[in-house]
Amino acid sequence: NVGKSSLLNTLFGGARSIVSDMAGTTRDSIDAVMERPPAPGSDAPPTLYRFVDTAGIRRKGKVEFGPEFFMVNRALRAIRRSDVALLVLDATAGVTEQDRILAQKIADDGRACVIVCNKWDAVVDKDSSTYDKSVKYFREELPQVRWAPILFISAATGQRCGKIYATVDEAIVAHRRRISTAILNEVLRDAILWQPPPARRNGAQAKIYYCNQVSTRPPTIVVFCNDPKLINDNYKRYLDRKFRESLDGFEATPIRWIFRGRRVRDIARSRKMNGEPGDGGAGTSFPFPHAI
Q1: Exposed (0-12), middle (13-18) or buried (19+): which is 131, by Cβ within 10 Å?
Q2: Taking the CB of residue 54, how many other CB atoms lie within 10 A of it?
Q3: Three-state SS for 214?
Q4: What is the pLDDT of residue 279?
Q5: 8-60 residue pLDDT tens
Q6: 62 CB neighbour count, 10 Å cutoff
Q7: Cys-Cys crosslink for 155: which of 6, 100, 121, 166, Cβ 3.0 to 4.6 Å?
Q8: How far apart are the C-alpha atoms of 105 and 79, rounded to whole Å?
Q9: What is the number of other CB atoms lying within 10 angstroms of the CB of residue 157?
Q10: Bridge partners, residue 90, by sequence
Q11: Taking a C-beta distance cutoff of 8 angstroms, is the pair 288, 210 a contact?
Q12: Upstream peptide bond of 197 is cis (omega within 30 degrees of 0)
């Protein structure tokens, strides 16, 4: 009962969903389409938004087979078919374990995400540091979507609800963002020089050769290395953090990482360059110096 239906009604300026103080009032996913005109003086066409008001999702162990079972399945299916997921939380209640599960679900499905903290008007004893403390709290409690922007709104009063449109637009741009291979490898080189790949006790050393982006929605980066098993989760998180620090535009989208194993001689054999003028294209591009 975090106020998803109330937020939908506030955005549309009418009663599109039934609102009640009783949790679980919404039983089915409700689609509502809005055409938003461009900014005054702009020649851009109007923007169409499709908002889907989903039912509340309880823990799997509490859901019995029946109407609620199908209700939860439709809500999860709405996440998979969305471009941007608005993770609506209760600012007065904090983060629950189910919120963390939903955040992980959004990240696993590769959806862009915006954290919307509702009922900000009900937070008592606010001062100049309340906002910063709240942002820090939600960042620490939701590491699964630590890259998602956070909005503090009030569906009851309409406070900051208008900022949702611009945040959703930025999230869609980030979700479809593509970076050139040269820039990606430059960032990768700096990250490796700052902190080399891990090594195991038996002497096995992970070696990273190069990377490139293969798709969007979400941005997917393939990293070629000697053995993907040598790249642990800590180093994957380190690469994700360094790429976000070095590249602008990934604030609202997950980055999907794929590690593939290749040998050094296969890299040198497949990556041909033009070489020197007049040599008939006999030049060869070698991987990073540390990987040889």
Answers
A1: middle
A2: 23
A3: strand
A4: 45
A5: 888 888 775 656 555 555 556 778 888 998 888 888 889 999 998 886 665 55
A6: 8
A7: 6
A8: 8
A9: 12
A10: 118
A11: yes
A12: no
Tokens of 72: 């939860």
Q: What are the tens digits of pLDDT across the range 101-117?
A: 889 999 999 999 999 99
204 within 8 A of 227, measured Cβ to Cβ: yes
Instruction: Show the beta-strand stretches assigned E in the chain.
Output: 30-36, 47-53, 84-90, 112-118, 150-152, 208-215, 220-225, 256-261
Dist CA 253 CA 177 (whole Å): 9
Least-confidence region, from 131-135, 139-143, 252-256, 288-292: 288-292
**Burial of 265 (C-beta count, 10 Å sphere; 0-12/13-18/19+):** exposed
3-state secondary structure of 37: coil
Query: How far apart are alpha carbons 170 and 166 in whole angstroms?
Result: 6
Q: Please tell me the distance from the alpha carbon of residue 4 to that of residue 185, in angstroms, as a whole number.
A: 42
What is the phi-psi region of residue 215: left when phi exceeds 0, alpha when psi lies from -120 to 50, beta otherwise? beta
The amino acid that residue 258 corresponds to is: I
Among 235, 230, 236, 290, residue whose Cα is nearest residue 261: 230
Cβ neighbours around 231 below 10 Å, total: 20
Q: Which amino acid is at 193?
A: L
The closest of 21, 46, 44, 51 to 36, measured between CA atoms, is: 46
pTM: 0.82
Q: Which two tokens stand for residue 71?
A: 């209700």
Which residue in the block uniquely carries the two structure tokens 């299916």? 77
Q: How far apart are the first and last CA of the chain?
A: 57
Q: Which helix (H) or strand (E) holds 234?
A: helix 233-246
Q: With CA atoms as reference, report the closest residue to 78 among 13, 153, 28.
A: 28
